């Protein structure tokens, strides 16, 4: 599924940028084809998850490899869910789902089906992990939409041209979908965290213990809760601030998922592999994001707000 998601998303994204340059270009047929390809890929993806569930006799999100496959599934679902509101969401989620599947099949991810450790042998695995991990897919969409919005800011010029108006229309549309996806992702993250507290009480006899995973999940909730309230702060009630925040804040999700499992010790480390060095692309990503934000900052002002 990796090349299918990646290629279809990249093709659609190219057509989206082409339409921004030439507004008369009709990309409806391309969008329908890509949506059909993604829907078929999603069904095959779902069948694969179900088959693994049947063979393993437990939910297929009990270790790093399985959870990455499930996150890619949630990302693809988010793209299909928002495809009628925004073709940009479909293109970006398709690319991200492909990248996530690619990461899942790297050498340090073990795809082997194993038996569950005792603490995971619970019906709460199906409930808590599925809800809280699905939120990562929607919040990943937020990060992509935020970065895409920053790129659109970069493409703007100082003159009030037709292309500028098209870019501003896409900026506002992407911001609107971004906010909807963030509210949904935050809701899933919060519900999943509460469900995790119930599971913790059944497993360890306490609802909350400031375990690294619990702490970072709470940090992520607080960060995204603050971002969705930007509209009530006049200085931050604009697409640029929302784009920057939604892009940068995904670092807390990465820390919650990867950082805690692979670099911190705690009760949730049972699902992690051996510690791994920080991949070089992480540093490159940080530099690229910071560079794009810096370049987009002078062009941050547009006529419309959230």
Provide keyphrases for this structure.
mainly alpha, 10 helices, 71% helix, single chain
Describe the structure.
The chain is mostly helical. The chain has one domain (2-299). Helices cover 71% and strands 0% of the residues. The chain contains ten helices and no strands. The protein has helices spanning 2-21, 28-56, 64-81, 87-104, 124-155, 162-204, 212-228, 239-248, 250-263, 280-296. α5 packs antiparallel against α6 (162-204). The chain is globular and about 65 Å long. The two termini are 36 Å apart. The relative contact order is 0.11. The mean pLDDT is 85.
SSE order and pairing:
Blueprint: H1 2-21, H2 28-56, H3 64-81, H4 87-104, H5 124-155, H6 162-204, H7 212-228, H8 239-248, H9 250-263, H10 280-296
């Amino acid at each position: 599924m990796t090349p299918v998601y990646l290629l279809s998303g990249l093709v659609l994204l190219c057509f989206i940028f082409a339409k921004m340059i030439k507004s008369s270009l009709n990309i409806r047929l391309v969008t329908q084809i890509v949506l059909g390809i993604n829907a078929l890929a999603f069904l095959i993806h779902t069948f694969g998850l179900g088959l693994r569930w049947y063979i393993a006799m437990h939910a297929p999100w009990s270790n790093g490899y399985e959870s990455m496959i499930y996150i890619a599934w949630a990302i693809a679902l988010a793209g299909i869910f928002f495809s009628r509101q925004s073709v940009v969401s479909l293109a970006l989620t398709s690319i991200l789902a492909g990248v996530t599947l690619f990461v899942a099949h790297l050498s340090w991810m073990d795809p082997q089906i194993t038996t569950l450790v005792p603490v995971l042998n619970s019906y709460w695995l199906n409930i808590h992990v599925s809800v809280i991990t699905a939120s990562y897919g929607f919040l990943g969409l937020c990060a992509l939409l935020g970065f895409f919005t920053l790129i659109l800011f970069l493409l703007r010029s100082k003159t009030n041209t037709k292309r500028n108006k098209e870019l501003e229309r896409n900026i506002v549309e992407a911001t609107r979908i971004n906010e909807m996806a963030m509210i949904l992702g935050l809701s899933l993250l919060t519900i999943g965290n509460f469900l995790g507290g119930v599971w913790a009480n059944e497993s360890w006899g306490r609802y909350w213990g400031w375990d690294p995973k619990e702490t970072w999940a709470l940090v992520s909730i607080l960060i995204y809760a603050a971002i969705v309230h930007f509209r009530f702060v006049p200085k931050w009630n604009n697409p640029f601030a929302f784009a920057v925040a939604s892009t940068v804040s995904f670092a807390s999700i990465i820390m919650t998922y990867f950082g805690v499992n692979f670099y911190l010790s705690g009760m949730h480390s049972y699902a992690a592999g051996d510690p791994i060095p920080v991949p070089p692309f992480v540093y490159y990503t940080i530099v690229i994001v910071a560079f794009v934000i810096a370049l987009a900052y002078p062009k941050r002002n547009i006529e419309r707000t959230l």
